[in-house]
Amino acid sequence: MSSIYSSPRFIHHGAVDGVTGSCHEYRISDDYGLLIDCGLFQGAEVSGSGSSSSPQINFPVTHIKALIVTHVHIDHVGRIPYLLAAGFTGPIYCTVASATLLPLVLEDALKVGVTRDTKLIAAFLAKINRQLVACEFKQWVNLPVLADANLQLRLQPAGHILGSAYVELRHNVPTNSSASKPTSKPYKTVFSGDLGAPYAPLLPAPKPPYAADTVVIESTYGDRLHPNRRERVKQLEQVLLHALQDNGTVLFPAFSIGRTQELLYELEAIMHRLRGQKIHQALSWDELQIIVDSPLAARFTDAYNSLKSRWDKEAKHRLKVGRHPLSFEQLHTVDSHEQHLALVQYLASTRQPAIVIAASGMCEGGRVVNYLKALLPDPVHQVVFVGYQARGTLGAAITQYGPKGGYVDIDGERITIGAEIISLSGYSAHADQQGLLRFVLGMKKPPQQVRIVHGDDSAKATLQKLLQEKGVNANLPLPPLYERGG
Q1: Rounded alpha-carbon distances, angstroms, from residue 39 to 13, 168, 282, 298
Q2: Mind listing the pLDDT tens digit for each residue in 152-204?
Q3: For 194, left (φ over 0), alpha (ψ -120 to 50), or beta?
Q4: Which tens digit of pLDDT belongs to each residue from 460-483?
Q5: Strand, helix or coil at 188?
Q6: Given this model, what pLDDT does residue 390 score?
Q7: Which residues of the chain have pLDDT under 50?
Q8: pLDDT at 1
Q9: Which of 49, 160, 244, 396 is found 20 to 30 A from 168 (Cα to Cα)?
Q10: How far is the C-alpha of 408 from the C-alpha of 397, rounded, in Å?
Q11: Smallest Cα–Cα separation from 66: which of 137, 163, 135?
Q12: Whole-angstrom Cα distance, residue 75 to residue 184?
């Protein structure tokens, strides 16, 4: 084995030119490296150069000894099947909750994008389960043996979705390898993954690490602030009161994991508080139907329910007093594709008031597309976006052109946007600018460097400027040369 570098090297195989495709290599020597996440690109964010949409692994993996998963969103784990196909056989470290959720995510990804062969999928999932190493939060774990340096991992709550973590890595690096008695010093690195907003439903807020030499931090909302929890719940209530006056459908495009469960949690709270009251003369809150039209989301909600022990104090208190935040009476799920198509047609033709949550969150495929084709032309309906829309996605196009009365192309068909388009950015599961700054500046010992990833240019540049004004050495890394045509 080659000698340990005097400081680790960072190679970013994704999420440097945008907010998707997270994949970061932590190289410790010529023949020893780790990967933190291995996610798919979405929309126009297709590679480091934006030139290829292939999900194939275009970097060597023979030296990659382990994969660490921060959380199970597809833009952080979607390339794992291709990583295994490229020859990776090492352990996959993640939290206990993520170990439960990851096989569900990858099974769905394979069915949608690779194969419907049940035997192949079963074989792949069996392999994944053999490689998974479930870790408890806040406990140091020894990683595969590294000569001359005990490499350890600790996962800390990130508050983004259930099981999400930020990563702490520590090992010794040489300070004077040429001396008769070589010396070394500890080196610590933090990868933020996706940090959650404070007071997000079901999850405790992330706390800053004590110290680190290097921090690799996301910057999705590095140039924006979110309203607080009370304000955003009030916003949601006001949007629903406004939208349901027309008795149309209120459509929420939402990711099956994380956002769907957060919405259900907040909707249950609103209806619990307003039960018995009228939305308008012909409709009460008790009569309003909440529909989750996504078999995958339903499976994730079941998984969330099975992991109640890992909810935060507020959510556990609601359970204790007899409430069911994710499985309440007015909640209905749609299973079969036939039921889905019939419901879309029924809502489009009858204008029956309802709230529908359907995947995907950026409208890139999934059942939400059928709703959009049927409902977008009719001004009686509303489409409410509660998450980030990456450039090049259908969701981004709708939010851009919808308020202007424009149109979008869906499956080769021009769809005029008559429905009202509403964006509630405060409902993001990502930390805002203040939360990102708090994560870095709240450390007892400031880092030597901060590498800003996972954000659009404006968000990254704004966060960099604010950190530099506080005396932090913050930089914007580039993709590897082979992704820039070098």
Answers
A1: 10, 19, 47, 23
A2: 999 999 999 999 999 999 999 988 766 567 788 999 999 999 999 877 889 98
A3: beta
A4: 999 999 999 999 999 999 888 655
A5: strand
A6: 84
A7: 47-53, 484-486
A8: 55
A9: 49
A10: 7
A11: 135
A12: 37
Residue 64 CA, distance from chain mean position: 24
pLDDT number for residue 388? 83
Q: How many angstroms separate the CA atoms of 447 and 17, rounded? A: 23
Check: CB of residue 35 under 8 Å from CB of residue 27.
no
| End-to-end Cα distance, the chain | 28
Tokens of 330: 């007015």
Could you tell me the CA-to-CA distances from 370 to 50, 121, 211 in Å, in that order? 28, 27, 48
| Structural contact between residues 115 and 121, judged by C-beta atoms closer than 8 angstroms | yes
What's the pLDDT at 246? Answer: 85
Helix, strand, coil shares, percent, the chain, to 5: 35, 25, 45
Q: Which residue has the tokens 């040429």?
A: 178
Confirm if 390 and 43 have CB atoms less than 8 A apart: yes
Q: Round to whole Å and give the CA distance between 194 and 163.
A: 11
Looking at residue 131, what is its pLDDT?
Answer: 97
Per-residue pLDDT of 86-99, as tens digits, reads: 999 999 999 999 99
User: In angstroms, what CA-CA distances link 209 with 138, 165, 204, 442?
Assistant: 11, 12, 15, 8
Got the DSSP string for 248-312?
-EEEEE--TTTHHHHHHHHHHHHHHHHTT-EEETTEEGGG--EEEE-HHHHHHHHHHHHTGGGS-
d(CA 143, CA 149): 11
For the question of whether the overall pTM of this predicted structure is more than 0.85, the answer is yes
> Residue 275 CB: number of other CB atoms within 10 A?
11
Q: Which two tokens stand for residue 30?
A: 């010529």
Q: At a CB cut-off of 8 Å and minimum separation 6, what does 66 contact?
A: 34, 35, 90, 91, 92, 93, 143, 144
Q: Is 130 helix (H, G, I), strand (E, B) or coil?
A: helix
Length of the chain equals: 486
Q: Is 84 helix (H, G, I), strand (E, B) or coil?
A: helix
The two three-digit tokens of residue 247, written as one number: 């008795």
Are residues 100 and 72 in contact, defined by beta-carbon separation less than 8 angstroms? Answer: no
Strand bridging mode 420-423 / 183-191: unpaired
Which residues, at least 6 apart from 137, have a Cβ–Cβ distance to it below 8 Å?
95, 155, 156, 157, 165
Confidence (pLDDT) at 176: 75
Q: Give the integer Cα–Cα distance in Å for 25 and 36.
A: 6
